[in-house]
Amino acid sequence: MTTFIVPTREEVAPVNQSIFDNLTKALGFVPNLYATIAYSANGLERFLAYQNAKTSLSNKEKEAVNLIVSQVNGCIYCQSAHLVLGKMNGFSDLQLNEIRHGKSSDAKLNALISLAADITKNRGNASEANVDAFFAVGYNKENLVDLILQVSDKTAMNYLHNLTKVPVDFPVAPAI
Q1: Percentage helix, strand, coil for the chain under 3-state DSSP, each rounded to 5
Q2: Residue 5 has what pLDDT?
Q3: pTM of the shown model
């Protein structure tokens, strides 16, 4: 199988070099998976615009979705990254562990996580019960669309890492 080496700033297109500079200023480094997207001259800019677009989901809800989708898709890179980001967005270690197991003690978050996992496992063919539970706790059709978009965002990153296997540059998520 082809080995993927994380490209350096000097090895990517000028537009990506500028994005690398911005990421370094904002985060202190360029995450390996973002750098890998930069193999495409247009991919990184396109992906970051999609990832950073406005949504009806809160950052905390997005992190819960990112973590459960990464867990279902078996992406160690994204599990590792979203454990860090989840803590930054207010989740405790216990809550993050619950999410990785597909549940939450918070009813609304539990409905979101359950539906996100179901959508991911069944390629969009979620159970009627999970969809009904999602709406029953107060989510609406806008939230459903934004949930699907969030699942697609994270699935793309999961697939990229699962295929390229670039090194994880976050504290590695413990096995569960």
Answers
A1: 65, 0, 35
A2: 97
A3: 0.96
